[in-house]
Amino acid sequence: MQEKLKDFTIIDTHLHLGYLSGLNLPLEPDSAIMAQYKKYGVSKAIFSHHYAISSVDFGLECTLSALEKYKGSFFAYLVYNPNFERRSLEIIKEYISSESVAGVKIHPS
User: Fold this and answer.
1) Closest to 27 (Cα-Cα) out of 10, 5, 12
2) Distance in angstroms (rounded) separating the CA atoms of residues 18 and 49
3) Using CB atoms within 10 A as the burial measure, which of 11, 55, 63, 84 is most buried?
4) What is the pLDDT of residue 5?
5) Which of 106, 109, 15 is CA-nearest to residue 67?
6) Which residues neighbour 79 within 8 Å (Cβ) at sequence distance 6 or greater?
7) What is the pTM for the complete model shown?
8) CB of 70 within 8 A of CB of 34?
């Protein structure tokens, strides 16, 4: 039986957005994820974007886009990518105080 849990606030704290070669993500694009969340009563999600692994700037662009599109439902982990140390730190410094940012994730680790 598939029904919502009505007496709980459900928050997904480990969501990845974006395609990553070799990783099976059956709910691509993010709109499919949101449809499942609505179906099962998940009210919020904290995500990091896979694209920040290969390009921290493109990952940031996709992160900001998802935050705008799903404002109030999606929150983000900024990505500290050790392969792009300086740029990662610049991004973190600029965006860490945003209400939509939940924290920082080291990726790849």
Assistant:
1) 12
2) 6
3) 63
4) 60
5) 15
6) 48, 49, 52, 53, 56, 59, 88, 104, 105, 106, 107
7) 0.86
8) yes
What is the pLDDT, as a whole number, of residue 93?
98
**Could you tell me the pLDDT band of residue 7, with boundaries at 50, 70 and 90?**
confident
CB atoms within 10 A of CB 40: 13
What are the distances in angstroms from CA 25 to CA 7, 20, 50, 104?
29, 8, 11, 22
Instruction: Give the gyration radius of the chain's Cα atoms.
Output: 14
CA dihedral 82, 70, 10, 56 (to 10 degrees): 0
Per-residue pLDDT of 32-85, as tens digits, reads 888 989 998 899 999 999 899 889 999 999 999 999 999 999 999 999 999 999
The total number of residues shown for the chain amounts to: 109
